[in-house]
Predict the structure.
Amino acid sequence: MSTVVYVEQHEGEAQRDSLGLLSQAVGLGLDVCAVVLGEQAAAVAAGLGALGAKRVFVADSPALAPPLPQARVDALEGLISEHGFENVLFASSVLTADVAAGLASRLRAGLNWGLVDLHVDGGQLVGTQPALGDSVFVDVGWTSTPRLALARTGAFEPKDVGGDTEVIPFEPEIAEWSTRATLLDREKTVGEGPAIEEAEIIVAGGRGLGAPEHFSVVEALAAELGGAVAATRAVVDAGWYPYSTQVGQTGKTVTPKLYIACGISGAIQHKVGMQNANVIVAINKDKNAPIFDYSDFGVIGDLHEVIPKLTGLVRQQKSG
Amino acid sequence: MKIAVCVKEVPDTSASKRIDPGTLRLDRSGEGALNLGDTNAIEAALRIKESSTDCEVVLISMGPESAINSLRKGLAMGADRAALVSDPGAAGSDIVGTTSVLAAVLASEAPDLTLFGQQSADSDGAVLWAAVADRLQQPLMSQATNLELESGSAKVKRQTEYGYDLIEAPLPCVVAVSDGINEPRYPSLKGIMGAKKKPQEIVGLESIGVSAEETGTAGSRTEVRALNDPPARGESQVIEADGEAAARVLAFLNEKKLI
């Protein structure tokens, strides 16, 4: 099956999940090409041979410079029409999800999203889509081509297989209306304290903390355990904690040895950012909170009682 | 000024959800509720309405006829009217089919601004806005944590994996708001009483000019092949907090050699 993997890049660096997806497609024995768009696309493309992409299509026009989806849909539409790819694979991100959905609409193509696995069964491409709070794993397929697939964050790991690739530039045609949305400014966020991506232990706080000043409870436990502090999107949006500490779909993806979730309900947007932690401990007042479905140890109760007490016990143990 | 808010009824989160083993679709027979993220989109629309002199907020949805009950919650919050496309032929639509339906309604309503909320609480919906914007050939801005309208354009602050982007697009455009953009209001008693009297239109596919082949199960380009149990997670335990909870967490962490 002729397959193209859309590899998203940010300032010349390929998005890791795109590379994982590329490896997955190569591993399935599909006939795999990749496509990279935007400034520095060619530099990213050169590195994709190592992951097994036979050919990489690159386009770098001014319309593709800002990280906005609609011009990318135009570029991909042209490429797919010209080469007749049967499978078009995407790894989820804020930008890529919009590109995949826009393309589905443009090509009147089937799109399965949120996939945690992709395999070939009896010559058919099949995706695994968790549903109902991940309580059911649905095998999904396509009834027409091209088949569009959007993988969930953290679904696949990149694997170096070695090899060269042919980089093929192309000139996309961009519609006027696709560039009507314009980027005015970018606000970069710089982290303070230990980077949460590197931390072996993370203590994270959510809305259940009740107020921004209650992050001190989380910070105290993190300090005692030698870990970093993380936050959910809800509290970052509310201005309680900096964006650089946000874990989840639009934040960081972390894989610590221990993740302690304090007052975090554990909605899917958060889950995708931390589900690969070795051990997950959750403290939440709501016994129906989804976080308990994927915690190794859960406490239903008031974090303001349990966490300070735990901090004290850890301190005692360390000094004793 | 006209603002359309695309909303969706989802199964009530407090009720247990199931997939119908016969149709392999989400069983929507139980009590429904308005998708939580959609209330953020309605709130965003109402704030614009309240700061302008002449503004209409229209709720647009597709679903079973009973979904009108959930739309009434949006009317109770302050939206002006609701249009629901309900047709047996539209059941089981994939993203392209749903896009055909919503785009047809939006094309005839011709709003200045179309809003969507964060991904719906059931399995789908995370990507619908981009498909609808493409069909309408309108600019799209998603993951908006802030939205401002000024002189014929919309300005959005968008959260991404790398920080925040400030994006601008001329109206008409499509904006998908994040659940962090605002705190949705609760409907007032007066709002709830008034909601029943607000215009609520239920229409079929024919009246919006969408053919049954384009939508529903018949038009779907994706299929459900099988349902499986999720892979088992290792042993896990959940305890009710008592005086010993902290000590038991510590014991667990020691057992796992994490301290």
About this structure: Chain A has two domains: 2-179, 201-319. Chain A has a mean pLDDT of 93.
